[in-house]
Amino acid sequence: MKKIILLLFLFNASFLFAQKEISGTVTDNSGAALPGVNIVEKGTFNGVSTDSNGAYRIKIKEGAILIFSYVGFSNLERIADSAILNVVLSLDGGQVLQEVQIVGSRNTKRTVVNSAVPIDIISVKDVTTQSGKLEINELLQYVAPSFNANKQSGSDGADHVDPASLRGLGPDQTLVLINGKRRHQSSLINLFGTRGRGNTGTDLNAIPAASIKRIEILRDGAAAQYGSDAIAGVINIVLNDDVNELTGTVTYGAFNTNAKGDFPAGTANTDGNRLDQNGNGNSIGKNQSFDGGSVKVAANYGVAIGEKGGFANFTTEYINKNKTLRPGFDFRKGFGEAAIQGFNLFANMVIPISDKTEFYAFGGRNLRDTDAYAFTRGDGARVVESIYPGGYTPRITSNIIDNSMAAGFRTETAGGWKIDISNTFGKNLFHYYTKGTINASLEDASPTDFDAGGHSLSQNTTNFDISKNYDTVLSGLNLAFGAEFRTEKFNIFAGEEGSYATYDINRRPITDPQNQTIPSIPNPDYDAADPSSPMTLPRPGGSQGFPGYSPLNVVDRSRTNLSLYTDAELDITDAFLISGAVRFENYSDFGSTLNGKLAMRIKANKNINIRGSVSTGFRAPSLAQVYYNLRFTNFSSAGATEVLLSPNNSPVTKSFGIEKLNEEKAVNASLGFTANYGDFTATIDGYLINVKDRIVLTGYFDATPLGVGVDKAQFFVNGVDTKTTGLDVVLAWKKTINESKIGVTLVGNINDMKINKVKNGNLPAGAFFGERDKGFLLASAPNNKFGLNFNYNRKDFDAGLAFTRFSEVKLLDYQMDEDVADYGSFADQVKAATDTYGAKIVTDLTLGYKISKAAKITIGANNLLNVYPDQQDDWVEGGGYWDAVQMGFSGAYYYLRLGFNL
To answer: Which interval of the chain is the signal sequence (predicted)?
Structure first.
């Protein structure tokens, strides 16, 4: 041990002896102090921030370069060649074409502090170095007030892509941008018991955290500015532009398997009953204290191009996470989080062509192999004993590929007009493979894995944007307008025949049901006295766990969209800002829409701003919502049901009176204020969001009279109107005392969603959108979430402690599908079916130490106290002891990370 300490001392000695202290102040062009400016010794982790008076003090290596950065201002690099170094940051101090543009405003001179709408700026480097979260959704869940995401289990594709939302609205009602350009959505549509049921969304986890400089979250309706999907707000991901340094991390972590709860003897995935992952999903393996082991390796490197600010920045990331397995019932022995193995490659580039013109490009490729257990097949017609004695638990695996590429030119004319012409292409591919499964109608001749087909969504967007700032018009006027042309294409492609076909006793696909015989087994519940009781049970076709897409499911559909917009921001005085936007959109498949927005900001005094906005918005129905179709088996504790999800253009859909899908329409209003008193800042914003014609997935209708071979049918419909009111709160205090930096932040969201109207027409309300369906929709909008975060940094040591309180969530379980007579009344049935997940506080802890100038070790725990949901019920959607709620169901996660900076 003494030798190790001596080696560490010698390793650091050369740096320690060569250090000197630099101090100074940071101001803007007017001489006003800038608190919270980030100051970093280039090429190291060593950094500080300015205090409330704009002052700083830092110890650095002799001759080092300091980087000064502040949101809304140009970065500045200065050689630390004197003991006192005062600097002035300018909005116009850097290269003209690389000024910071904040989402929510097309004015490059606008900053977060003086914006008219609520914006969160999240430094990903800061968050990832003080957190053990592996994916972007997890990071945002704990740092953004109204962002919510859920890990799913037993939800097919949604086990692999976490549904996420802002302000309790749908995953597809938040627009995602990268470097200000529209990001393509996932081709996956959320089904079953997921949050965001019936919605598509953008897969944020396909973007490597190491490639991101910051994330801007606009918590305000912005469809008039950015188009469809921006009802709840906009998430803009700004990619890294660092040069001449190699940074990276290696992280290992695992989950505590000691689930908290009252589990009967023999419960799957408790001690003595842990599922053997090397078996058929029905055999017992060894006890484990930890599972879900994960390794994540990430690296980022940038090189300068030319001498006018050009760069090329590259990121690579590898993640390998094993399954977690938690207590489940006999019909769901594989309850837990999916396994993921993924590889990311991302790039961001700017090449100056002249002093006024530059070419830029960015994009990447994400590949993930995922693996999750489906519901257990214990006995009956779905089990072939010669292949799986005693039953089996099929696995749904998938290859998910996201490719994206954006390129364009930015220039500034002699008259001061900024012009941006770009093209962005993105495609998501979801390819399913079922493993550890069978096609029961093939009996003992069945393969045990199948190519089940899949789906893809591609999007190409061409943008023309132009803007100009007039400093001489009152206190400043910014005009912007532009056009966008977008094409989208949605495909479903078929799997191999055995994944979807039902075979006869001669092992030929059923094409003539009247003259072909399906293999069957004796009915163990046959009652000779009951004429309706069958003597035999037919063996079902298709791959168990996930039925493959058949040629009848194949889809190849596309559409185009043309949009025109204009917006303006006018500083009438230094204290009063007003802005407005108008956007026209025309879709080839459903028509046109016109939306507008008006916002204002008043500086009540030098410390307080009052702001507010009102806007209209819309969201076009996704191609997946219009054309997606599938036949699947829905499992509950009551048994299996064959279901047809019928596309919107199908005769089956029309026969039920379901109308053509149209856009969702919204009205947003917000009012809030910001306050800045020295070391303390606060933003409080209230909001009201009315959405008409929200697209939802119906419940199940009786489909037996149709004679299409299924029990139930369901559809996508413009089914409900909702009203959401809420409050976002961000309170922050930062203080530098001598060499110690202390930060305390409280982020919170209070939210209330109400379903104003269910538009079932003449259809039965319970089947159209019943109490259980309402429960899933409302659970996407938790009543509140609060996070209290403490951060401490002194020299080489830093620590973070976070408490996150998730509010109570209520869901209705499968008891709603039972006979009302079994409960006495409908009200009693609702009461019995209501599962209440009480409010819980999750504690995260992280401790970091720089072992050298270029290396840092961090240890920590997410959910340190191993808190679990308290509700336990075998009627839940996922088949485990808990539903998918915001706090998760995998317990404590412990990790160790090595960070390096060369």
So the answer is: 1-18
| Burial grade of 472 (CB within 10 A; 0-12, 13-18, 19 or more) | exposed
With beta carbons less than 8 A apart as the criterion, state whether 687 and 755 touch. no
Exposed e or buried b per residue across 732-753, where buried means at least 16 C-beta atoms within 10 angstroms of its C-beta = bebebeeeebebbbbbbbbbeb
pTM of the model: 0.85
* pLDDT average, residue stretch 3-30: 58
- pLDDT score recorded for residue 13: 39
Smallest Cα–Cα separation from 146: which of 690, 614, 890, 683? 683
Q: What is the DSSP string of 713-760?
A: EE-EEEEEEEEEEEEEEEEEEEEEETTEEEEEEEEEEEEEEEEEEE--
- pLDDT tens digits for range 598-637: 999 998 888 889 999 999 999 999 999 999 988 766 544 4
Tell me how crowded residue 902 is: count the other CB atoms within 10 A of its CB. Answer: 13
Element (H, E) at 567: strand 555-571
Spatial strand order of the sheet with 701-702 comes to 630-636, 639-645, 712-714, 701-702
pLDDT confidence tier of residue 150, bands split at 50, 70 and 90: confident
Residue 493 scores a pLDDT above 90: yes
DSSP element (H, E) containing 806: strand 797-806
* DSSP secondary structure letters along 460-491: EEEEEEEEEEETTSTT-EEEEEEEEEEEEEEE
Walk me through the domains of the chain, giving residue ranges and CATH numbers. 19-88 (2.60.40.1120), 112-502+540-901 (2.40.170.20)
The residue-averaged pLDDT of 243-263 equals 92
Asked if residue 102 lies in contact with residue 112, where contact means CB atoms within 8 angstroms, the answer is yes
Structure confidence at residue 672 (pLDDT): 92
Check pLDDT > 80 for residue 568. Answer: yes
Question: In which residue are the tokens 């549509």 written?
Answer: 189
Least confident of 67-81, 431-445, 468-482, 855-869: 67-81
Amino acid at 379: D
Please check the confidence at residue 5 and state whether its pLDDT lies above 60. no
Is 806 in contact with 840 (CB distance < 8 Å)? yes
Of all helices (H) and strands (E), which one includes residue 826? helix 826-833
Computed over every residue of the chain, the mean pLDDT equals 86
Spatial contact of 171 and 200, defined as CB atoms under 8 Å apart: yes
- Do 872 and 851 form a contact (C-beta atoms < 8 A)? no
Tokens of 854: 């270029």
User: What local confidence, expressed as pLDDT, does residue 7 receive?
Assistant: 39
Contacts of 737 (CB under 8 A, 6+ apart): none
Residue 489's alpha-carbon distances to 111, 486, 628, 743, 836, in angstroms, are 37, 10, 12, 47, 41
